[in-house]
Amino acid sequence: MKKIYQIKALILVMTITIMAASCKTEKVLQQKEALKDITGSWQVIKATRNGTDLTPIIDFSAFKINFASGGYTLVNKLPFLVDKDGAFALDDPEYPYKITFTAAGKTPIATAFTYPIVNGKRQLSLTFSPGCTNNSYVYVLQKVN
Amino acid sequence: MRTSLHIKGKHLWRICTCLILGIVLACCGEVITGVDQPTTAKVGDIVPITVHISIPTAGNGGPDYLVLGILVPKGWKAAQNTTITYTSPLGDGTMSLIPDGSLPKNGGGLTWSGYMKKTFGNAGNLIDDMEWVAYQTDKAYIHEGGHTITGDLNIKMKVAADGNNTLVKLGYVITDTGNGFISDGNGTYFSQVSTPCFEVTGGSGDIVDFCNPQLTIVDPPKSLDNDFVTLTFDGNVVATPVSGEAEVYLCATAYTDDGKTITVCEQTAKTLMKQTSATSKRYQITFWPRSFFNATDTQTIVKMEYFVTNKAGTAKVGYGNTAEPFVYTFKCG
Fold this sequence. Notes:
The complex is a heterodimer of chains A (145) and B (333). In chain A, strands 1, 2, 3, 4, 5, 6, 7, 8, 9 and 10 form a ten-stranded antiparallel sheet that branches. Helix content of chain A is 14%, strand content 37%. Chain A has a single domain (40-143), classed as Lipocalin. With 145 residues, chain A is mostly beta strands. The N and C termini of chain A lie far apart (79 Å). Chain A is built from one helix and ten strands, in the order αββββββββββ. Chain A has one helix spanning 2-22, and strands at 40-49, 52-53, 64-67, 72-75, 86-90, 98-103, 109-114, 117-118, 121-128, 137-143. Chain B is mainly beta. Chain B contains three helices and 26 strands. Chain B has helices at residues 2-25, 112-120, 289-292; strands at 31-36, 40-42, 46-57, 61-64, 66-73, 82-87, 93-97, 130-137, 141-143, 147-158, 165-168, 171-176, 183-184, 187-188, 191-194, 198-201, 207-209, 216-219, 229-234, 248-256, 261-265, 272-275, 282-287, 301-309, 316-317, 326-329. In chain B, the strands form five sheets. A nine-stranded antiparallel sheet of chain B has the order 1-3-10-6-7-8-5-12-15. In chain B, strands 18, 19, 20, 21, 22, 23, 24, 25 and 26 form a nine-stranded antiparallel sheet that branches. A four-stranded mixed sheet of chain B has the order 2-16-11-17, with no helix packed on it. In chain B, strand 13 (183-184) and strand 14 (187-188) form a beta hairpin. Chain B is elongated, with a radius of gyration of 27 Å. Residues 1-5 and 18-27 of chain B have low confidence and may be disordered. Classes of the chains: A mainly beta (145), B mainly beta (333). Chain A: It comes from Mucilaginibacter pankratovii. Chain A: This is DUF5004 domain-containing protein. Chain A: Residues 1-20 form the signal peptide.
């Protein structure tokens, strides 16, 4: 009879332990969003002007934007946000939605951009008006391999 | 019992017939019955235009606001340069711009201006540099059975605020806020009218001709030397010295802000105007003027004069098929 009590007590203790353990709050692991690294050489894979596709009629193959830690450089220039080399900045390295170009000796120019992954590759889509403000261009850039 | 049921059915039919008739007659299709508009004006004139309208109503509807859209060249900035009043048997009043936040009921999320552009386009004008400016009445009206509301919309618009001599087909459309550009079994709830070519003279700028097919078209219509510019030569408009040529080339002179001229007149890949399709007789070149003319960093190209030549460079076409060059001014306004 005593044994039964002991067993019962044991079961009770175990149950309490298990229940107590189940109440323990788990610490949520902080998932850190990867910093968006755009350093590298980028080229235009699609371009539109006021919605008209320019890709088949303009040779964009030579135009490159090189982003490095210190700033950006333009190779074989075409109409763009800036026409001189300089510095760039993202508004938020984790969730950037704005990029600012500061050409040497010029005032900073900011524009909204998207940074989607298409077919496993990062793309950089920039919207801007290099000439008249009514003329809107979209360049979709991809890193050069 | 049977007889009483029969009578009930008879009543039902009568009610149904009246109801259907009522719905059919409830049509409230606005109609533009005429537009009084001068045929010419001088740049900067305030032009009086009267749009006569008729709103036949038989059933009950509303209250809705009357909507008027005016199709004008963007450069005229009509929204800032137009006042509209109306007179009607229901009272007189004014019409004001519809704010962009006030969306049409059946416009699929577009603004009134966008909805008009989507539905009516450039209404017969050949250069896509026009806009629909949308106005609505200050008071709503009820469409009540049996009578027709007629009225006049009196527009006073300053024309050609951009200083350009212009040929343009002004357009007008009316509808009401309860419907929009729809038709159904009850009728059509809108009316659109394009007027004959209206001419504005006395300006200092280029001639902008929206009415007549042009030998060359520049897209975008307003651009600077740092835009990509597409120049199209249309060989279908009239027989020219380069008609029948397989290849045509651009021969152009740029005028810079420091008083210099830069001429690119060669027949090479750089100046080749490609035919858009094998038989289209439309030849096109897209270029970045700063690079095409090799302008220095400190130079701005303010205008260009150009010809279209044959491959040998011996035959050339200019403005209006003459020996005078086409002129394009780089500007945004």
